[in-house]
Design goal:
alpha/beta, 7-stranded parallel beta sheet, 4-stranded mixed beta sheet, 10 helices
Length: 309
């Protein structure tokens, strides 16, 4: 394997844990940065296979490791209230700059980092990478600044760079304050679900498919630097997702569509066009949505109550 050493940030998180698991399954040697406060429960099945860093000399240790690829997911301030905090959002850029410097020092081949649909601003419809970014909050602005910083720095240093803008993602190990796991846990406990009309058309990508998409980028030969949407490439109504979950669980819950008003300026159609990814890296893996929901439901069904899951 020509590129077999990966340094990753955010491996303890929802998306990062799945990417890390797939890297290890393909035989990659993985070094990961974590916060001192990080809870590694998502990595319980493979945490001993990772070289974890959390001390002051982490930069020197990464340089000694000499990764071929850096995957950067870590980002502070993703809650709705924190997304308006410019100071907190732009604090994230320092870690990016540190990682770029490390990449230059060890002459990495690829730098893969994660952006967000928030860079496009208010979305109503199907969005491709050709859409002009127009972020409306600090989170989106900081992500866009990070993308441009990565692009310019890597281009000058001959590093292949990949900026992956993600949309909605679901699957095992997601915190239960997000929509799909919230619905699943409520229905499993036969609790009432008070919802909006759920007419929104959203693009949901299964997290294990996302991990496979990232692995394809890691394994792809040649320079394909650029911005890529990572999405399921289609949207469906939230109501249809809730109905499918309820059909699988067969819950006794009362589901009250329309009990909660839509937010002011609620986006009703958010869909990522990932045709560019498909053209560059091959057709996306696409788990059957029903199978993916069953897998996700099975995960939450098997869990004991976990605080702040």
């Amino acid at each position: 394997m020509p590129n077999n050493r990966v340094f990753i940030t955010g491996a303890a998180g929802f998306i990062g844990s799945h990417i890390t698991e797939h890297l290890l399954a393909q035989g990659f040697k993985v070094m990961a940065l974590k916060r001192n406060s990080s809870n590694l429960w998502r990595c319980d099945d493979f945490r001993d296979s990772i070289h974890w860093l959390a001390n002051e000399d982490w930069k020197e240790q990464v340089i000694k490791f000499k990764p071929d690829t850096i995957i950067h997911l870590a980002w502070n301030g993703i809650s709705p209230t924190e997304r308006e905090d410019f100071e907190k959002q732009f604090f994230n850029l320092q870690l990016l700059f540190d990682l770029i410097d490390i990449g230059k020092t060890v002459s990495i081949k690829k730098f893969i980092a994660f952006g967000s649909q928030a860079e496009y601003g208010s979305i109503e419809g199907r969005i491709s990478e050709a859409t002009q970014p127009a972020p409306f909050n600090a989170y989106g602005v900081a992500k866009l600044a990070a993308q441009k910083s990565l692009e310019i720095s890597c281009a000058k240093s001959g590093i292949h760079w990949y900026w992956l803008r993600i949309y909605s993602v679901f699957g095992p190990k997601e915190n239960t304050n997000w929509f799909i796991p919230m619905i699943i846990t409520n229905l499993l406990m036969d609790e009432e679900c008070k919802l909006t009309g759920c007419e929104q058309l959203y693009d949901y990508l299964y997290v294990k498919d996302l991990a496979k998409m990232v692995l394809a980028i890691v394994n792809k030969d040649g320079n394909h630097s650029g911005v890529y949407n990572l999405s399921s490439n289609h949207s469906r109504s939230l109501k249809s997702i809730v109905d499918d979950i309820n059909e699988i669980i067969n819950s006794k819950s009362t589901i009250s569509f329309g009990a909660v008003p839509y937010r002011p300026n609620q986006s009703m159609h958010i869909e990522g066009n990932s045709d560019l990814y498909d053209k560059t890296f091959g057709e996306r893996p696409a788990a059957n949505i029903n199978s993916a929901l069953k897998d996700t439901i099975a995960y939450y069904s098997s869990l004991p109550n976990r605080e702040n899951q």
